[in-house]
TrEMBL record:
It comes from Adhaeribacter soli. Residues 179-278 form the P-type ATPase A domain. This is P-type Zn(2+) transporter. InterPro entries: ATPase_P-typ_cyto_dom_N, ATPase_P-typ_P_site, ATPase_P-typ_TM_dom_sf, ATPase_P-typ_transduc_dom_A_sf, ATPase_P-type_domA, Cation_Transport_ATPase_IB, HAD-like_sf, HAD_sf. Its main location: membrane.
Length: 679
């Protein structure tokens, strides 16, 4: 797959699953703008109507009033059918026609208007046109009740589609965007309640226990625990300490805290996540693009086939009756409307994006939901993806010294360095080293540290440092796989400390699950020394591992895999691994919470640091694809069957209504099912 093909998407046109369609303000709103989504011209049922402004205040009232015409039409239809059934004498002629025409126009007026306006713009073959000619034809041959029923159930189906889309969007937005509308700002020592959008960078805000954080900020209070479920999908409390970053959407669990605001309301990590989820609907999967193209060809074909059904039998049938064959053609038209496909398929993908969001996984488009199901090779970075990315002391060996004093001496010297290995030793030792006096500290590049601790010369570093100062030690020590710190005190070898990065708790289970899912090749790439990389690969049962790699070497390895015809997913931290994430068929960023680079570079952002989410992402992609193809099979199967029945005069308008609206209804129910699944 060409890289440009993957990323150079068409201009976003909005999520193409709303319809007229039958109300003044159909479909969900574009967040923050209040504009209505319109299909943008690709769907079989597109309109070119300009979006209208709608305020939140009028939304509920409008939603109620938009159903009134359908309710009125249903009452009149049922009344007319009842009067026909009981053969009421006065219900005939113009009275009967008037009742059914009012019922028809209540729901069909806007549909006919959309058909005319689209016709004038050259967009002839759409669902408005199909429904218009089918129902007007039914009226022409005197089937008033059936004409009203077709239009009424079509409109009800449209309302249901809109409600399903709106609910799907709302559930995702409510899940993620739980920021409060009021925030307490401390200005000149006075607490003031203001809208979060009015808070400036550098302002100090106060968050009480149980309150949601409205803005990204830096902790000024010593510590507090937070529920990060809205951002990570995990409800396990996360402790933040002074100086650490707290993000909008987190819930403060412990006590009153103070935060220094580091990002505006629209620039917070949460706002970027919300924007990404919204934009995901504009990046379409191949299945969606195929159905859209198919509908454009399919719709005019069935219109001409319907014409053929109505007119061609004249030349071949002895007792040809125009109205009978016209009725069959009208049934054929109603069945042929491809709404079930055009509506339920994008809704299925959007449901998959919503399900992923609930699990702390953000897909940047439905195309990546499809692509992730084709992956046969998973390539992972080691540090921060499969390991914690935090060095910890593993083993301490001393040469005739008491371990506590040995550690305190080494930690005292290492406390003068900012290297992660030095920090690990200091953290492991505790505060005992602070009793020691350190002087004449020197960092020798590529070797280690030299200095005096309590007047004694101390060396701490690698084998090169020992050789440089002629310190003899057991050569077998060099065979140790882990990162090792050799120590000499007073010119003599005093012992060593091994340091290692801990494997994440769920990493072994992740590798096992991926193998069970049919991922044939799992590869680990790392800049760490090869012996350490191979040791971790053996522990985790990873198929291939390469160590000592620079960023460009990782790119080369992924290119080699792609040249072998493999579909590659790469999982990294989204910053150091940006070139490889971009190159892979699907790039996933681990721990992307609050990381601009991760959100920008990756196709899929895993907001937690759990590698098990990789398998979850693939599972959601597979389940989404399964539901989409179930809908395609259902729609094609039922429509094909009823189309054949309609052409031979077996099916009536009532069966046609089921084949169109009923199938769309079932497909939508199936599509939203994924949002209730547990992964």
């Amino acid at each position: 797959m060409n890289l440009n093909d993957k990323r150079n998407q068409d201009e976003p046109k909005g999520l193409e699953i709303t319809s007229p369609r039958t109300a003044e303000h159909p479909g969900p709103q574009i967040p923050k703008t209040g504009l209505q989504y319109e299909p943008g011209g690709d769907a079989c049922c597109s309109t070119d109507a300009k979006p209208e402004k709608k305020t939140d205040e009028d939304g509920h009232d409008h939603e109620t009033t938009s159903y009134l015409p359908a309710i009125g039409s249903l009452v009149l239809l049922l009344t007319g059918i009842a009067l026909d059934y009981f053969e009421v004498s006065w219900f005939s002629g113009y009275i009967r026609l008037a009742v059914f025409m009012i019922a028809y126009l209540l729901v069909g007026g806007k549909v006919l208007w959309h058909a005319v306006t689209n016709f004038s713009k050259g967009n002839i073959f759409n669902e408005f046109f199909l429904m218009g000619i089918a129902t007007l034809g039914a009226i022409y041959i005197g089937e008033y009740a059936e004409a009203v029923a077709v239009m009424l159930f079509y409109v009800i189906g449209e309302h249901f589609q809109e409600a399903a889309v709106a609910k799907s969007r709302k559930s995702i937005k409510d899940l993620i965007d739980n920021r409060p509308e009021i925030v307490t700002v401390l200005r000149n020592g006075i607490a003031t309640e203001v809208n979060p959008k009015q808070v400036n960078l550098g302002d100090v805000i106060q968050v009480k226990a149980g309150e949601k954080v409205a803005l990204d900020g830096e902790m000024l209070t010593e510590s507090s625990s937070f529920n990060t479920a809205a951002l990570t999908g995990e409800s396990k409390p996360d402790t933040k300490r002074k100086g650490e970053k707290v993000l909008a959407g987190m819930i403060n669990l412990d006590k009153v805290i103070e935060l220094k605001v580091t990002a505006g309301y629209e620039d917070s990590a949460l706002s970027k996540i919300l924007q990404m989820v919204e934009n995901a609907g504009t990046r379409k999967a191949k299945t969606q693009l195929f159905i859209t193209r198919f509908a454009k060809v399919y719709t005019p074909i069935v219109v001409f086939l319907a014409l053929g059904i109505a007119l061609l039998p004249y030349f071949f049938v002895d007792d040809y009756i125009f109205n009978d064959w016209l009725y069959r053609a009208l049934v054929f038209l109603v069945i042929s409307c491809p709404c079930a496909l055009v509506v339920s398929i994008p809704l299925g993908y959007f449901g998959g994006i919503g399900a992923a969001s609930r699990n702390g996984i953000l897909f940047k488009g439905s195309n990546f939901l499809d692509l992730i199901t084709t992956i046969d090779t998973v390539v992972m970075d080691k540090t921060g993806t499969l390991t914690e990315g935090v060095f910890k002391v593993q083993e301490i060996k001393t040469n005739g010294l008491e371990q506590a004093d040995f550690l305190a001496t080494v930690a005292a010297l290492e406390s003068k360095s900012t290297h992660p290995i030095a920090s690990a030793i200091v953290q492991h030792t505790g505060l005992s080293y602070q009793q020691k006096t350190v002087s004449e500290t020197e960092e020798i590049s590529g070797h280690g540290l030299k200095g005096k601790v309590d007047g004694q010369e101390v060396l701490a570093g690698n084998g090169k440092l020992m050789h440089k100062y002629n310190i003899a030690y057991d050569p077998q020590i060099d065979a140790i796989v882990d990162t090792i710190v050799l120590v000499a005190i007073g010119g003599k070898f005093a012992g060593y400390i091994t340091i290692a990065d801990q494997i994440k708790e769920d990493a072994p289970g992740t590798i096992e699950t991926l193998h069970q899912m049919g991922i044939k090749n799992i590869v680990m790439l790392s800049g760490d020394k090869d012996s350490i990389v191979q040791k971790i690969a053996k522990q985790l049962k990873i198929d291939l591992a390469f160590g000592g790699l620079l960023p460009q070497d990782k790119v080369t390895k992924v290119e080699e895999l792609k040249n072998q015809g493999k579909q590659v997913a790469f999982i990294g931290d989204g910053i150091n691994d940006a070139p490889v994430i971009t190159l892979a068929d699907v790039g996933l960023a681990m721990g992307g919470l609050g990381s601009d680079a991760a959100i920008e570079t990756a196709d899929v952002v895993i907001q937690t640091d759990q590698p098990s989410k990789i398998a979850t992402a693939i599972n959601i992609g597979k389940k989404t694809k399964q539901i989409v193809w179930q809908n395609i099979g259902l729609a094609f199967g039922v429509k094909a069957l009823v189309l054949i029945f309609g052409a031979f005069g077996v099916a009536t308008m009532w069966e046609a209504v089921f084949a169109d609206v009923g199938v769309a209804f079932l497909a939508i129910l199936n599509a939203i099912r994924i949002q209730r699944m547990k992964f």
